[in-house]
Amino acid sequence: MLSFGNALLYNAVNAEVYKTSLDPCAGFLHDPAGARNSLALDIAEMFRPFIIDDLILVTDHQRIMNQGHFDKDEFKCYLNREGKIKWIGEIKKRMEHLVDYSPLQRPVSAREQIKLQCYKLIQYLDGEEHEYEPIDFQNWG
Description:
Elements: H1 2-18, H2 38-61, E1 70-72, E2 77-79, H3 81-96, E3 98-101, E4 106-109, H4 110-125
Antiparallel strand pairs: 1-2, 3-4
Helix pairs in contact: 1-2, 1-4, 2-3, 2-4
């Protein structure tokens, strides 16, 4: 669930980065290597604890995901087809969940917050803002 969720989040962030003037290969935390876009990995790091990590705990504690969603062999445990469909649905719900966003004085989805973080980064890099302030996750939950 963790690695599949991280891949889905990375792809969602990558899509938002490509909609901006940011260079997807320029990274701050991750070195550009191979076919990955380091900036998407960097931005995804901000959201991962609240979108993927927390969702794993919620789906377990609320028994949304169960043993029937996994296949096992001698060396690994992985999501089966039904589990992947369920997990993707839960991530989509989390990405569209509205959270109060004080700078706009209205609720926005996690997906929109990813886009807004991209624009905050552009403003900082262009010198429009003197410091980059990452998202405040106090209202998440």
